[in-house]
Design brief:
10 strands, 54% helix, globular
Length: 283
């Protein structure tokens, strides 16, 4: 992607990389969260959220102490680049939604950090918290995206951020609230509804990607990087890696093919209306 190499850091980034969390009374480590995540995929039951909710209710032993920030020129250049992605994302959605759009904040952290949704840990991957309308990201995830998932490239990284901002858009439009209400009323449909919401966020990421292509920011090969990343983090891909078995009934984000297809739809159309995964599921 073509970004200004001499750009300034975004004012919508909250940098907590120098903050080290003291943890909560019985907070699980990263390994424990990873184990629960794998068990969730295998058993088809969300075992992570209840633990995080319990942690959120525990009294904090230490809200975190800031020390000197250990970084590199390459990492700081990446922070500037991420900020340019974020600013462009938010400007694009402000054009598309008008006065309905309100800016989100991107929180950079290492290891673990507090959020309105409870304790966020790196092992959870990037996430969006509706409670404080912030996106949370540990830059280590981009290394994992490259080394573990085989999806390198700046647009692969941009897709991840755009997906989380897509959840922010869903929150602003009331989609997130409606889906959560439906999940509570129909627990058996909870996973299916989650998949539809995640696929819509993928499509929203593609809508932004289409905009960058129209403005000459996207370069040849960028779209393929994003599609490769979407496929790499499909539920079936992750389940196959973790247990060797694929359980479609336990999907919460969609298969590799579904994620790539909805990202592609957004990239090709640039139309928010083309991202109605819920209508498509009912047709």
């Amino acid at each position: 992607m073509r970004w200004n190499p001499g750009g300034q850091r975004s004012g919508d980034i909250e940098d907590r990389r120098a903050v080290r969390m003291g943890g909560r009374g019985a907070s699980m480590g990263i390994g424990g969260i990873v184990l629960l995540f794998i068990l969730s995929l295998v058993l088809g039951r969300d075992m992570v959220s209840p633990v995080l909710q319990q942690q959120a209710q525990m009294p904090s032993q230490d809200s975190g102490q800031a020390g000197p920030l250990e970084t590199t020129p390459q990492e700081e250049a990446k922070v500037v680049e991420i900020g340019q992605m974020l600013d462009d994302l938010q400007a694009t959605w402000a054009r598309l939604l008008g006065g309905r759009y309100q800016k989100s904040t991107l929180v950079l952290f290492r290891g673990a950090t507090e959020s309105a949704c409870g304790l966020g840990e790196s092992a959870m991957g990037p996430f969006y918290c509706p409670g404080d309308q912030k996106v949370y990201l540990d830059l280590e995830f981009f290394d994992q995206l490259d080394r573990r998932f085989g999806a390198p490239g700046d647009f692969a990284q941009a897709y991840v951020i755009a997906h989380e901002v897509g959840h922010h858009v869903q929150n602003l439009l009331g989609i997130e609230r409606q889906v959560r209400a439906l999940q509570q009323r129909s627990p058996r449909q909870a996973n299916q509804l989650s998949v539809l919401m995640e696929l819509q966020a993928d499509c929203f990421a593609g809508v932004w990607g289409h905009s960058t292509a129209q403005r000459g920011i996207m370069e040849p090969g960028d779209a393929e990087e994003g599609l490769r990343a979407a496929s790499a983090i499909g539920d079936d891909t992750l389940q196959r890696q973790s247990s060797g078995r694929v359980r479609p009934e336990s999907f919460t984000h969609g298969s590799a093919a579904q994620r790539a297809e909805w990202l592609r739809r957004g990239l090709q159309t640039g139309d928010v209306k083309a991202c109605d995964t819920f209508a498509a599921a009912g047709s």
